[in-house]
């Protein structure tokens, strides 16, 4: 085989290869065609399945749902929408299949149809694409669709069918073809016919049902008219009685034969009664309208009764008035009961008005509210409000911050089985925009199912009470704050002796008491605690009990250890507060007196030390004075001896006199120091003695110290006996009277020194008055000071009046002087009798 | 101990379809199912299906895969709204899944799943594997599972598909719906054993095409020319044709060893092309340079006789045991695109009847997908264009 032949052979072989394989492709096309036919048959079978299944269904919804699924099935699309419109009623029923998370009411088919040109053949299948869907927001996820809109005028029905393929899944689905158009068209017609006949059947069925119901109703009505307890009267178009039931005969006593052809008013009515009701009845009868009235009628025997009358005019099919039917009921009992209720209501309203309680009543059936004038004032209603608008108005009054809570409360209450709700809220009063606090009580009337039939409520304006509570609360907080910031420790017990408050100062030292808040004081002793703490607690409980029993403040002191183990002393006051005989609370106030205790201790120690020093000093002064006086008296004795020697020259004699004077003066000083020391050192020794004798003795001693004339007098308004320290009084009077003598007016022959004694219940009053030199005003304040000497010329030591003052103070009295320079002085001494 | 219950339906509404499957499958069952395994056509909303199934059976783990049609004990259905269910009770199982599996990472993802399965349960003796059939390297999947679980563990299952468009496929695992996912349901019930076999009945014809440039599962050139146009030209299809056009006629055949061919009843193993990108063909397994690929033609008679041969061989191996459940994977090109409805139903009847017990079909879950796993001459193998049966017995 040459090369060329070989090439030809190879080429022919290759061609053969391709023919064989291409044959497969051709064969596949045949298979595809066969499959298409086969598949088409399947689709028709599905259609047939729909028909057979739908015919077995009675429910329109089930048929429609089956239909929408069949659209998906026969068109082999992803999703479908079906809409059926009943043109006689305008109602639409929309069904979907395969459309995720949709609100099917969005798909109003007749809106969709507006985007499709169906003018040429409105009943033909339309294939739509993305351009179409882009105009409908709800369907813009879809890429392809088949739309069919059909109607049956006779059955007054329109249907819309739409098969859909989404953009996302479009590659998986076949392109619409004519076969699908045909099968869809057939399906549409079948469904329309099915729906039409279903609707017709339903309508016929409904009419049959209505007829049956009417027949049953008629039978029932006839039975009711005969057997009802209400009185039934059938009258002709002129109002003349044609028929009455047994109940009417029983109530009125009239037999049918007696009243047939008569008008009811002619035999039931006797007196003129409510003109308004009567006129209303006449007008309705003339206008051939339904009317309901309540009149007083009379039985045949003349007994009056309240008659509730409903009159219904009856017309034939042509609208001609043929009869009146009157249904009457003897409501005498009801009227009486109603009048009684009205009276009670009136009383109740009066109470509500006096108590300023707003009252309202709301009925579920009418959604209307009635209310009283107090409620209007509470809400500040400034205009007329309709009963059905009241709830809205009330809502608008609610304080914005309370609205949610109020609605939640009401909602929970309505949905519960409770019959009573009480709650508080704020409103903004409409007329002055003031915030008011309302306490509201709501009572529910429920039916057997627990549903609300009626709500009755009362509103009480509690603004003032609320404000007072706020003030009290603020005050309480203020006092709590004060208590907390007080350095003293405080506990407050309530009337049951429960611990209601402990301040920070207390808790600082005894923090474990924080856990006692809310507990009863008397139970605390059962708590585990240390010995000292328990002792203090028991004592406190006892003191609280005493304070309550005696209704008075009780003080005591205790000691305790702080958390840092430091011992502290405190003064505890237990104060029970009563209103009348009712205990309100108990305040326990403890003050830290640790420092005071410490100071007291120091003072006592210092006093003791000082006492000791004083004693030592007194002893020293006494001993020194005593020891000095001995040698001094020796000197004076020697001076007197020297003076008794006659041959002393004049100068020497003068010197010796000077020595004697100085020695005498020194002796005086030492004696006064001794007096002072005695007064300080010796205990008071009171006794009863004769003061006249004492004064007389002093006068006598002094009488020899002067030569000029001086009148000394004694007088007493209370007798001469006196009970005091005799020795000290003697020293005191010697000094005072001695000074009066010493500083007398020597030039005046009328000089005097007067002593007088008086007494009160508590004290003795001694006065020593003279008309001597007197004391200059500027010196009066100084005369009782130690070593003050009023005159340089005198021989005084400057200790006399100082000792007097000391004595008077020791004896619990006083010493005062009134003096005028050049005219005299008056010393007033008071001495305590005890 | 695991128990199996099945049902199938073609109700259009997804929720009602789920309800009906559960009602039929579990009508006499008191125990709550632990696994619900759904096969469903792409016309169903998979999210709705999984959510609703979960709401009805909250204790069950839901697994689902898309397909071109289902086969149940009720028969065959190939529409846009088919659904089939295998409900499983008992706890002798483990589940793992992957949300992103492709040709390039098939080995790694399957290895991860195998490790997860092994960590969950011991004694795994069979593995139902279901993955996206678009862009996957199934030989690598098998290699990864065998490495971890052992070659003795039978891998059965399929690759999920759409309605032969090669556009998208769905898988659901862990209540998520994925487009390139996979799940593996491993059984470790020691009382169970499985027998698998696949058959196709196609004939390789003419001269083979030789792979001259490729990597992994992607063939770039055939006979030194761009792969996809060459492939279309040999099939006599226009240049504008897509995988949906080529799948029914474009079965590619690889030659088998003599021993493998003997059991298979055919000298060739078939492969499908489910995706192309430009001129590159996405093959279903690894395809090294030098591989020879034959075009094939269908032989209806052979398909029927080979089916008989396979079923008889399986019945013979069963030695009188009756199956407690049958899983079934069929190539979508063997469905309505291969034979008419009458013949197809006859074919299915022919494969189901021998497994009946007292005239009742065992629980049966089948799908028309892109590919099938079944043992061949004792080895786990991936097939295309076959009918593969996985018959489970209780020993």
From TrEMBL, chain A:
SMART domains named among the record's database cross-references: HATPase_c, HisKA, PAC, PAS
GO molecular function, one term: phosphorelay sensor kinase activity
Keywords: Kinase, Phosphoprotein, Transferase
InterPro entries xref list: HATPase_C_sf, HATPase_dom, His_kinase_dom, HisK_dim/P_dom, HisK_dim/P_sf, PAC, PAS, PAS-assoc_C
Enzyme class (EC, first level): transferase
SUPFAM superfamilies documented for this protein: ATPase domain of HSP90 chaperone/DNA topoisomerase II/histidine kinase (SSF55874), Homodimeric domain of signal transducing histidine kinase (SSF47384), PYP-like sensor domain (PAS domain) (SSF55785)
PAS domain location: 217-288
Documented EC number(s): 2.7.13.3
Pfam families, alphabetized: HATPase_c, HisKA, PAS_3, PAS_9
Record field: catalytic activity: ATP + protein L-histidine = ADP + protein N-phospho-L-histidine
Protein name, as recorded: histidine kinase
Source organism (scientific name): Flavobacterium stagni
């Amino acid at each position: 085989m040459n090369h060329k032949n070989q090439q030809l052979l190879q080429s022919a072989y290759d061609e053969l290869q391709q023919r064989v394989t291409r044959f497969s492709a051709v064969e596949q096309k045949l298979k595809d065609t066969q499959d298409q036919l086969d598949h088409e048959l399947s689709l028709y079978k599905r259609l047939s399945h729909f028909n057979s299944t739908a015919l077995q269904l009675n429910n329109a919804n089930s048929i429609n749902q089956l239909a929408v699924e069949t659209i998906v099935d026969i068109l082999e699309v992803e999703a479908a929408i079906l809409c059926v419109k009943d043109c006689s009623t305008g109602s639409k029923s929309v069904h979907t299949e395969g459309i995720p998370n949709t609100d099917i009411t969005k798909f109003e088919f007749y809106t969709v149809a507006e985007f499709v040109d169906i003018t040429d053949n409105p009943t033909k299948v339309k294939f739509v694409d993305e351009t179409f869907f882009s105009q409908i927001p709800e369907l813009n996820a879809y890429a392809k669709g088949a739309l069919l809109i059909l109607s049956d005028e006779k059955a007054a029905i329109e249907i819309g069918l739409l098969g859909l393929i989404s953009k996302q899944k479009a590659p998986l689905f076949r392109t619409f073809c004519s076969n699908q158009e045909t099968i869809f068209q057939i399906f549409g017609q079948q469904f329309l016919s099915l729906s039409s006949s279903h609707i017709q059947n339903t309508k016929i069925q409904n009419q049959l049902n209505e007829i049956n119901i009417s027949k049953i109703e008629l039978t029932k009505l006839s039975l009711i008219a005969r057997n009802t307890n209400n009185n039934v009267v059938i009258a002709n178009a002129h109002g003349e009685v044609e028929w009455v039931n047994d109940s009417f005969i029983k109530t009125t006593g009239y037999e049918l034969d007696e009243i047939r052809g008569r008008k009811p008013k002619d035999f039931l009515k006797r007196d003129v009664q409510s003109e308004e009701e009567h006129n209303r009845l006449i007008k309705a009868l003339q206008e051939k309208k339904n009317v309901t009235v309540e009149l007083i009628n009379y039985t045949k025997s003349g007994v009056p009764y309240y008659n509730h009358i409903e009159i219904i005019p009856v017309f034939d099919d042509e609208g001609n008035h043929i009869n009146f039917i009157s249904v009457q009921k003897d409501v005498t009992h009801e009227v009486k009961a109603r009048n009684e209720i009205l009276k009670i209501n009136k009383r109740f309203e009066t109470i509500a008005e006096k108590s300023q309680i707003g009252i309202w009543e709301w009925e579920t059936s009418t959604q209307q509210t009635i209310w009283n004038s107090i409620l209007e004032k509470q809400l500040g209603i400034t205009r007329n409000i309709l009963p059905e608008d009241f709830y809205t108005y009330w809502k608008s009054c609610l304080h914005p911050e309370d609205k949610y809570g109020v609605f939640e409360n009401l909602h929970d209450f309505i949905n519960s089985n409770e019959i009573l709700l009480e709650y508080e809220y704020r409103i903004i009063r409409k007329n002055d925009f003031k915030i008011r606090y309302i306490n509201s009580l709501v009572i529910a009337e429920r039916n057997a199912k627990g549903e609300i039939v009626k709500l009755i409520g009362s509103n009480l304006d509690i603004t003032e009470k609320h404000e007072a509570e706020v003030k009290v609360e603020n005050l309480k907080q203020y006092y709590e704050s004060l208590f907390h910031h007080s350095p003293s420790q405080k506990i407050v017990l309530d009337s049951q002796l429960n611990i209601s408050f402990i301040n920070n100062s207390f808790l600082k030292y005894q923090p474990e008491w924080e856990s006692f808040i809310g507990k009863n004081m008397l139970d605390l002793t059962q708590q585990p605690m240390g010995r000292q703490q328990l002792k203090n607690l028991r004592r406190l409980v006892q003191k609280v009990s005493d304070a309550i029993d005696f209704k008075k403040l009780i003080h005591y002191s205790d000691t305790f250890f702080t958390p840092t183990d430091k011992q502290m002393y405190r003064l505890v006051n237990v104060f029970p507060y009563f209103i009348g005989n009712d205990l309100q609370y108990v305040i326990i106030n403890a003050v830290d007196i640790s420092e005071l205790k410490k100071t007291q201790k120091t003072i006592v120690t210092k006093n003791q030390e000082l006492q000791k020093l004083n004693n030592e000093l007194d002893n020293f002064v006494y001993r020194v004075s005593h020891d000095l006086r001995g040698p001094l008296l020796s000197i004076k004795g020697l001076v007197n001896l020297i003076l008794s020697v006659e041959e002393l020259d004049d100068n020497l004699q003068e010197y010796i006199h000077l020595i004697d004077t100085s020695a005498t003066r020194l002796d005086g000083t030492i004696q006064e120091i001794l007096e002072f020391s005695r007064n300080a050192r010796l205990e008071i020794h009171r006794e009863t003695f004769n003061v006249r004798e004492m004064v007389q003795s002093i006068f006598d001693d002094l009488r020899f110290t002067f030569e000029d004339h001086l009148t000394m007098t004694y007088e007493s308004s209370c007798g001469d006996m006196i009970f005091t320290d005799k020795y000290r009084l003697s020293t005191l009077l010697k000094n005072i009277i001695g000074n009066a003598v010493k500083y007398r007016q020597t030039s005046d022959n009328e000089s005097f020194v007067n002593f007088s004694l008086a007494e009160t219940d508590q004290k003795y009053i001694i006065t020593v008055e003279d008309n001597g030199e007197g004391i200059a005003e500027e010196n009066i304040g100084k005369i009782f000071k130690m070593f003050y000497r009023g005159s340089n010329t005198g021989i005084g030591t400057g200790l006399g009046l100082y000792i007097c003052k000391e004595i008077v103070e020791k004896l619990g009295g006083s010493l005062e002087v009134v003096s005028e320079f050049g005219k005299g002085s008056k010393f007033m001494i008071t001495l305590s009798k005890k | 101990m695991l128990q199996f219950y099945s049902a199938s339906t073609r109700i259009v509404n997804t929720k009602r379809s789920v309800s009906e499957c559960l009602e039929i499958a579990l009508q006499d069952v008191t125990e709550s199912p632990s696994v619900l395994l759904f096969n469903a056509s792409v016309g169903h909303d998979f999210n709705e299906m999984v959510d609703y199934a979960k709401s009805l059976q909250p204790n069950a783990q839901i697994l689902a895969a898309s397909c071109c049609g289902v086969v149940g004990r009720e028969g065959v259905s190939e529409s846009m709204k088919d659904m089939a269910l295998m409900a499983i009770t008992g706890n002798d199982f483990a589940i793992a899944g992957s949300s992103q599996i492709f040709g390039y990472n098939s080995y790694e993802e399957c290895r991860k799943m195998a490790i997860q399965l092994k960590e969950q349960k011991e004694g795994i003796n069979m593995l139902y594997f279901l993955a996206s059939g678009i862009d996957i390297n199934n030989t690598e999947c098998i290699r990864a599972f065998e490495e971890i679980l052992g070659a003795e563990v039978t891998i059965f299952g399929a690759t999920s598909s759409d309605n032969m468009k090669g556009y998208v496929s769905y898988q659901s695992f862990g209540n998520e719906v994925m487009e390139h996912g996979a799940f593996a349901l491993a059984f470790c019930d020691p009382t169970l054993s499985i027998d698998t076999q696949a058959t196709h009945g196609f004939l390789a014809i003419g001269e083979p095409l030789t792979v001259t440039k490729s990597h992994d599962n992607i063939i770039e050139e055939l006979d030194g020319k761009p792969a996809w146009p060459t492939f279309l030209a040999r099939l006599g299809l226009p240049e504008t044709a897509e995988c949906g056009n080529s799948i029914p006629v474009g079965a590619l055949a690889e030659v088998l060893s003599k021993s493998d061919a003997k059991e298979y009843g055919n000298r060739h193993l078939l492969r499908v092309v489910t995706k192309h990108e430009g001129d590159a063909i996405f093959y279903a397994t690894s395809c090294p340079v030098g591989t020879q690929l034959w075009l094939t033609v269908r032989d209806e008679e052979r398909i029927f006789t080979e089916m008989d041969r396979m079923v008889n061989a399986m019945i013979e191996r069963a030695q009188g045991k009756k199956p407690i459940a049958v899983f079934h994977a069929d190539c979508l090109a063997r469905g309505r695109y291969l034979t008419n409805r009458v013949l197809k139903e006859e074919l299915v009847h022919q494969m189901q009847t021998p497994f009946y017990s007292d005239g009742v079909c065992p629980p049966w879950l089948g799908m028309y997908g892109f590919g099938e796993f079944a043992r061949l001459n004792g080895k786990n193998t991936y097939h295309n264009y076959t009918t593969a049966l996985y018959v489970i017995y209780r020993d």
